[in-house]
Structure formats: structure tokens, C-alpha cells
Write a structure and sequence with these properties.
This protein is an all-alpha fold. The protein is built from six helices and no strands.
Amino acid sequence: MIEQRKNNAYRKVNEELILLYFEIGKYLCELIDNSGYGDNVVDKFVDFMSDNYPNIKGFNISNIHRMIKFYKTYKDDDLALDLIVQLSWTNNILILSRTKSIEERHFYLQLAINEN
């Protein structure tokens, strides 16, 4: 019982983290679309996070760009949205960076879930 609940808690925390990264990607895409050239949206966001949440890791420039790409890739893909929350951020980024088509992403997302 303890192990089952512990695993459930880890899965739920991971799901919330993936959803947070997806929402940050959406938020930043909207900011970028509504900003002018040279507004440095990503740099300002990184600065905001380091000033306001200095103990939270993962909000560097390269990871923020991954969040934006993550959102752009999966925003209209309902099937993938159900799958991505079941995988870690690292596994999601590996699949995202190494696949070319929607079908290929779906295949590897499902395979990773099936194989734990």
C-alpha cells in the first residue's frame, strides 16, 4: 500500500510538472507573438524566475526554449496530450528532439509508457 501510494504521488507530481512546462510554453508563445522584435521575452522570463524563485531549477534559457517547442509541437495534438503527462520531462524531450512526424512521436510516446 505504501509503495503504491508513493508511486501514485510521484506520477501526479510529474503530471503537474509537465502541465506546468506546457502552460509556460503557451504563455511565452503568446507573449512572443504579441511583442516586438528585440523584446527579449525569454531572457526576461529567465530573469523573473531567478529573481522570484531562486530555489527552483530548470528555468534556464535552453529549457525555456524546450518548453516553447514542447507547446508548439503538442498544442493541437489531443492524443499526445494524454501521453506526455505520463512521461518524465527528460523522456518527453528525448522523444521530441529525435522524432520528425506526429506518428513517430505517438509511437515512441506509447512505447515509452508501455515499457516504463
